[in-house]
Write a structure and sequence with these properties.
single chain; 318 residues; Pseudouridine synthase; Archaeosine Trna-guanine Transglycosylase, Chain: A, domain 4; 3 domains; ten-stranded mixed beta sheet; five-stranded mixed beta sheet; 21% helix; 36% strand
């Protein structure tokens, strides 16, 4: 007989402003403990040396994590010129130096080469698996790690400030899989110098914005007052990329049973006009929509041939 998972049925998103020196796993555990939630997960790892947005899903919201992971991210980071470390951040040992310090004009001119679809070799100190082992584990054991370049997409990259000749503050909007540390390394190479990331902060993940984030200490204080639920965002918050379909209570009941419902011609046409190419975790979601009843998520399904067939159902009670 399977053990029943302890905790409460808590559903929704917490947009955590993760502090420095905390892993994403530790952050999820802390939030789960505050809510005593049965289930929790996060939308995109944030390194211990990085701060900022870490959306954490509780309960049924974990079913929408892939949609949040696929969303665009915005990072603000500081590059320190003249030194490259083995980890490409402040944690590692210096492995190369340079006397070259690029000026503002040179930096801005070089940025254009890092916008759009670019080839990027991930850092050897990363979670990518090589022959079943994490690259960072192999690197820490002193083994030579060679990772292949992969294509990633950078939508925007701009220079925000040059507080000193040694430092440059940049902001990047990008898709999934972009490594800020690799970009800092490659940008430095393009400028004829060395460099590493001295500070990193994520300020947006998909539709989750810095303005709605909550610090862990604030969330703990809210919990002591019995008000932690005020920081919870609805389960469907991560699903802004797909159309919404309002359904009746009877239709909601059918969908929760895994049965399809017939769309009105007007509904089918509206969903068709909102359709756009979308792939989530390898699944074609171009025909997908979110069915809601009284503003509560019911199911994600595909609208085809005048019918709506659910493929992800939410077990929420009104």
């Amino acid at each position: 007989m399977a053990r029943r998972r302890k905790g409460l049925d808590v559903h929704g998103w917490i947009v955590l402003d993760k502090p420095l020196d905390m892993t994403s796993t530790q952050a999820v555990s802390a939030v789960r403990r505050i809510f005593n939630a049965k289930k929790a997960g996060h939308a995109g790892t944030l390194d211990p040396l990085a701060s900022g947005l870490l959306p954490i899903a509780l309960g049924e919201a974990t079913k929408t994590v892939p949609f949040a992971v696929e969303g665009e991210k915005i990072y603000r980071f500081t590059v320190k010129w003249g030194e490259r470390t083995d980890t490409l951040d402040t944690e590692g040992e210096i492995v190369a130096t340079s006397d070259v310090r690029p000026d503002r004009a040179a930096i801005e001119a070089a940025l254009a080469g890092f916008i759009g679809d670019i080839e990027q070799v991930p850092p050897v100190y990363s979670a990518i698996k090589v022959d079943g082992e994490r690259a960072y584990d192999l690197a820490r054991d002193g083994e030579a790690v060679e990772l292949e370049a992969r294509q990633v997409h950078v939508s925007a990259l701009s220079l925000m400030d040059c507080p000193s000749p040694d430092m440059a503050v940049l902001e990047m909007r990008c898709g999934k899989g972009v490594y800020v540390r690799s970009l800092a390394r490659d940008l430095a190479f393009a400028l004829g110098t060395e460099g590493h990331v001295a500070a990193l902060r994520r300020i947006r993940v998909g539709r989750f914005d810095e303005a709605e984030s909550t610090r862990l200490d604030v969330l703990e204080e809210m919990a002591h007052k019995g008000a932690a639920s005020e920081a919870l965002l609805p389960v469907q918050t991560a699903l802004d990329d797909i159309p919404a379909l309002a359904v009746t209570e009877e239709e909601a009941f059918q969908l929760k049973q895994g049965r399809s419902i017939v769309l009105l011609p007007r509904q089918a046409q509206e969903l068709k006009t909102q359709r756009r190419p979308l792939s989530i975790a390898g699944r074609d979601c171009s025909f997908s929509a979110l069915a809601t009843c009284k503003d509560q998520a019911v199911a994600i399904g595909d609208a085809r041939a005048g019918k709506f067939q659910p493929w992800r159902v939410f077990n929420l009670t009104p």
